[in-house]
Amino acid sequence: MAEELIRMEHIHKSYGRIQALTDVNLTVRQGEIVGLLGDNGAGKSTLIKVLSGAVPITSGDIYIKGKKAAITSTTDAIAHGIETIYQDSALVPQLSIARNLFLGREPIKGPNFLGRLDEAMMNQVARDLLKRVGISKNIPPTTNIGSLSGGERQAVAIARAMYFDSDLIILDEPTNNLGVAETQGVLRFVRGARDSGHSCIFIAHNIHHVFQVVDRIVVMRRGTVVADDIDPKTSTVESVERVITGEDH
Ligand SMILES: Nc1ncnc2c1ncn2[C@@H]1O[C@H](COP(=O)(O)OP(=O)(O)OP(=O)(O)O)[C@@H](O)[C@H]1O
Ligand SMILES: [Mg+2]
Q1: pLDDT computed for residue 179 by the predictor
Q2: Buried b (16+ CB within 10 A) or exposed e, 135-173
Q3: pLDDT-flagged residues of the chain (< 70)
Q4: Domains within the chain, CATH numbers bracketed
Q5: How high is the pLDDT of residue 229?
Q6: What is residue 130's predicted lDDT score, i.e. its pLDDT?
Q7: pLDDT value at position 114?
Q8: Is ligand 1 within 6 A of the CB of residue 38?
């Protein structure tokens, strides 16, 4: 069995008096695609926000490749190889595609003290990546994110995770509001990520999308994990739906 990449242990998270996560454990192995399912408010986004440093943890531990990690900001998470993609995610609408790709990690041209952003390099990488993620339309890398469609923005965020070769790519409802072709693009990307040895956590309300791409399904209900080892190859969509709603017992 592949080595463990991420282990979250006894994670608790409260927002004031709201207990969003209660004693959650989650493991992701290297090269594994985990589908995280659960009804609205089950705690899925909160769990991945804790892992991506977007919200502070109340208590519990996170281990990365067996070592305890302190993730207190999104920068920490990125430094640990964790990249999170939300629809319209951490992209800056006023900046170009190329600048968004390199946000916070801009290449500098010339000696450090007179460093200028290497725009030509960023534009070239952006052009290549847009092709790789399946944006066939010829969109110049200098285009502002604000003028792209939801799916195109998604593609830019995905391109960023690809370029920086993150170990774990988290996708929180990446197929929401996407057209058919764009959705297929996202699902193709997730399969491609596995083929190149990356791990993914994939959250989607469309169980069929999850069944198409994941190795293992984890189900959350009311802030806890109620199933963590469902094999989509030997389970039915209906049986997983019963676990999600709690009709399984
Ligand atoms: N910033 C916040 N402040 C207060 N409560 C919050 C906050 N974010 C989430 N919650 C609460 O925590 C619980 C879990 O929410 P979370 O967003 O993690 O659910 P989810 O499983 O992602 O749901 P969905 O499928 O609707 O996206 C909910 O009860 C929600 O209202
Ligand atoms: Mg959510």
Answers
A1: 75
A2: beeebebebebeebeebbbbbbbbbbbbbeebbbbbbbb
A3: 1, 87-90, 111-115, 133-136, 177, 249
A4: 1-74+223-249 (3.40.50.300), 93-167 (no CATH)
A5: 96
A6: 79
A7: 63
A8: yes
Token pair listed for 237: 């969509």
Q: Any idea which ligand is nearest the CA of 39?
A: 1
Nearest ligand for residue 56 CA: 1
> How many angstroms does the Cα of residue 62 sit away from the middle of ligand 2?
20
Query: Are the CB atoms for 189 and 159 separated by under 8 Å?
Result: no
Convert the pLDDT of each residue in 121-149 to its tens digit.
888 888 888 777 666 677 888 889 888 87
147 contacts 173 by C-beta, under 8 angstroms: no
Closest CA to 160 of 110, 89, 73, 71: 89
User: Which atom number of ligand 1 is nearest to the Cα of residue 38?
Assistant: 21
CA of 221 to the centre of ligand 1 (A): 12
Q: Which atom of ligand 1 is nearest to the CA of 173?
A: 27
Q: Are strands 33-37 and 216-221 parallel, antiparallel or unpaired?
A: parallel
